[in-house]
Amino acid sequence: MWHPFKPQNAVWYCWRLNGAAAYLRKDRETWRIAFKTILFRDLDLDGGTGGPEPEDPPGDLPVIRAWGIGEKVFLHPFLCDKPYVLTMGEKLRIAPGQECRFTAALPPLLKFELERGKALAEEMPFTMSKTFFGPDTMHGEICHSLPAVLGDDAAANQNSALIHCEIILTNKTKTMFEPERIEVDPQQLNVYLCDDRLITDALEIDFLDTSCKLRIGKAKGKNQRLVSAGAKHGVGESFARKSVDIIKNITDI
Fold first, then answer.
1. What contacts 136, CB < 8 A, 6 or more positions away?
2. Burial (CB count within 10 angstroms: exposed 0-12, middle 13-18, buried 19+), residue 164
3. 80 near 143, Cβ under 8 Å?
4. 18 DSSP assignment
5. Where does the pLDDT of residue 252 fall: very low under 50, low under 70, confident under 90, or very high at 90 and above?
6. Is residue 156 within 8 Å of 112, Cβ to Cβ?
7. What is the pLDDT of residues 56-114, one digit of tens each?
8. pLDDT for 224
9. Are 104 and 162 within 8 A, CB to CB?
10. DSSP 8-state secondary structure symbol assigned to residue 108
């Protein structure tokens, strides 16, 4: 699924992605690619993931043509370039000195790449709503909006195309803390393949009296293989502070 693949010429192949799909065909140095996208709310975890397997795309899907020399191709999952804003499914209350842990399942950006890293095409298979997020109107930005928590079974589901991120919120203030939404900036996080499951580094946010502190923890799991690397520059307190300051939704697609 997430490993380099050597296709036969003139054969369509399909990667199944929880209701979405990616299709690819090689004709010598010409590559034909098609994506079936769905709304994130229509995600089908029971449908699972799999492939590549020989299968023609539906006739109504647009086909992308790309040129590149290579024998093997890689369906490469990345975190999106825009931040994810996670909405808590239930009212969350964290008492002083307590912490909350949950797993967020983040939709990926997928790229077909050749062995030397040449990108043939990219697409987000799961369409998300958008939200405006930030400490004020001058510093806000458009982000992807999605639920913060899947059920325990879904969060642990091995047969998923989503990227799972463990988030730990710790209240180090003297008052009750009730976050409604949290922003996850994907540029800081590594993505790993761990037993056919995509995971990131853990995201740890401490809420202090007048500020926040963010740490990137190690991903938990054995047999990890790095799939994509996050940025190496530091993360300031402003990131975490912005992560709990909400203005309003301006779009809900």
1. 247
2. buried
3. no
4. B
5. very low
6. no
7. 999 999 999 999 998 999 999 999 888 888 887 667 788 999 998 888 889 999 999 99
8. 84
9. no
10. P
**Residue in the structure block whose two tokens are 């994506």:** 35
State the Cα–Cα distance between residues 200 and 159, nearest whole angstrom.
16
For residue 136 the two structure tokens come to: 């004020």
Two structure tokens written together for 108: 């990926």
Handedness of CA 14, 26, 75, 119 (dihedral sign): negative
The one-letter amino acid at 234:
G
> What percentage of the chain's residues is helix, strand, coil (to nearest 5)?
5, 45, 45
Contacts of 236 (CB under 8 A, 6+ apart): none
Rounded to whole angstroms, the Cα distance separating 77 from 168 reads 24
Give me the half-sphere count of Cα atoms (radius 13 Å) on the Cβ side of residue 56: 4
pTM of the model: 0.82
Q: Which whole-number Å values give the CA distances from 102 to 53, 122, 133, 165, 170, in the listed order?
A: 34, 29, 21, 8, 12
Q: Which residues contact 213 (CB under 8 A, 6 or more apart)?
A: 205, 206, 237, 240
The label of the residue with tokens 């994130």 reads 40
Q: How far apart are CA 84 and CA 96, in angstroms?
A: 26
Q: What digits encode the pLDDT tens for the residues 127-164?
A: 888 887 776 666 677 888 887 654 444 455 567 899 99
Token readout for 49 is 């993931």
Domain boundaries, the chain: 12-242
Q: Cα separation of 72 and 67, whole Å?
A: 13
